Amino acid sequence: MSIWGSLLGGVIGFSFGGPFGALLGSFLGGKISRLSSSKRISGQQNAQEVFALSLIILSAKLSKADRHVSKEELIAVKDKLQIPDSEIDQVAQIFNKAKDESTGYEPYAKQIAEIFKGNINVLEEVINILFYIAEADGHVSSDEEDMIANIAYIFGLSQKQYQSIKESRKSSDKLNPYIVLESQPTDDLQIIRKKYIKLSKEHHPDLLMSKGVPVEVINESKNKMRAINAAWDQVQKLKSD
Fold first, then answer.
1. By residue range, what is the domain housing residue 31?
2. pLDDT of residue 227
């Protein structure tokens, strides 16, 4: 079942504070209770709704990063989130509100980090999909990359984790396998193997869905898994030479 048909209904039934609550309450007639921004989500459905909202809002902010909102980026948001035509109007309300308001992306990133605290893999997936959206017009600008990098920093991702996500966006014949596996060329093969196993478990689609990543966007985690597997294959060949 798609999350989109019940998205706003689910949001109304869940209490938000902070920038999320202010944004959504502004066009939902104050139906969302204003509670602490540290309010914790519970249940997979709530987690999926919050994940989807996070992507809509951050995508809207990202679309303005290079001061040029392209048609390709807007199409990428719709396609990546698999938003059906019947639900595009309500999603567009959120997107346009987030795009046009004066609040920067940082307060939203901080609230998302707090909501998904302890679920670093979910936060990594947000970064992964933001890269996908930025790539939609054929080029990730320096302003877009700076914004994504800063969101990753706000999320608490390490530099190795961020670089691994960024490197995994490349085709398998161009990626640096050591960066993808958060390792060094000087590391022993068994050490890298342990990192490979750890990353494979953390980015398995089933695990991500259980933590709140909607099925609508899980294909990007599958791409990450392909990059991890390709990197491991390359490392084994390099180490055997």
1. 4-240
2. 93
Closest CA to 202 of 123, 105, 107, 138: 123
- Residue carrying structure tokens 């909202």: 53
CB 104 within 8 A of CB 61: yes
Q: How many domains does the chain have?
A: 1
Question: What SS3 class is residue 16?
Answer: strand
The string of DSSP letters for 138-190 reads: S---HHHHHHHHHHHHHHT--HHHHHHHHHHTS-TTTS-HHHHTT--TTS-HH
70, 25 in Cβ contact below 8 A? no
Contact 53, 4 (CB under 8 A): no
Task: State pLDDT tens for residues 65-91.
Answer: 876 666 676 677 777 777 877 777 777
Length of the chain: 241
For 19, residues 6+ apart whose C-beta sits below 8 A from its C-beta are: 37, 103, 107, 108, 111
* Residue 182 identity (one-letter amino acid): E
The alpha-carbon radius of gyration of the chain (Å, integer) is 18
pTM assigned to the model = 0.84
Token pair for residue 203? 């980015």
Residues in Cβ contact with 167 at an 8 Å cutoff, skipping those fewer than 6 apart: 175, 176, 179, 180, 227
